[in-house]
Design brief:
binds phosphoenolpyruvate; 8-stranded parallel barrel
Length: 250
Amino acid sequence: MSIRKKVLAANWKLNLAKEGIGEFSRGIRQRQDGDIELVVAPPFPYLRDLVVESSGEGRPFTVAAQNCSDEESGAFTGEVAPGMIAGVGARYVIVGHSERRTLFGETDEMIGRKLDRARAAGLVPIFCIGESEELRDQGKTLETLRRQIDAALSTAGGDFGWLIVAYEPVWAIGTGKNATPEEVRGAHQAIEGFVAPHLAGGAFSVLYGGSVKPSNAAELASIDEVDGFLVGGASLAVDTCLGIYDPMRG
Ligand code: PEP
């Protein structure tokens, strides 16, 4: 079942110095009204700092990791287990971002194992899917989304309680190019149909990502099938982050 819970997820990638965290959280704290879940995904070393910044009165945001291991423990140098991420107080984890797929060789099956591990650790996964420009040009967008969903979710199996799916056309990430509202609506409707049979009735939300910024957020946010955004570049500064957040309030 798709649920219309609004989420704005900020993916800081390999950016932002630790000193920027206080300014960011102060700016967000002044504006947050609780209707929209703002999720911040910093580099691993800042996870705990963000959890501490976000605690206390009026919890301004929740915290996500940008990746996790598909193993829970063992001789896997450099890996971070979902249980460790949950242990520092993060609630979400981004899984299968296109940069992980293309730059670090993550397969659909590995992503499925990560989803399974993340769920077992009590994290809500933000499961990223999206077609390359080449596949889009071949008219294979929906076929690609279906394949990514089927492969990962049949590996992971079962109910997630709540799963967030992020539709991120690869050609739109960090490029300034956007899918049109019609393309976004069509893809999100298809994704709902592809995901639902895997989840045994569990709830899910579908976010859009790819060069979302204050100037296009209102139009994209007005699409019924869009439950929020996963944002990279524009999430690094409080002003642009709030410039996307505000139109989501409707
Ligand atoms: C992303 O990396 O998930 C993303 C959507 O980046 P950007 O907003 O910069 O396109």
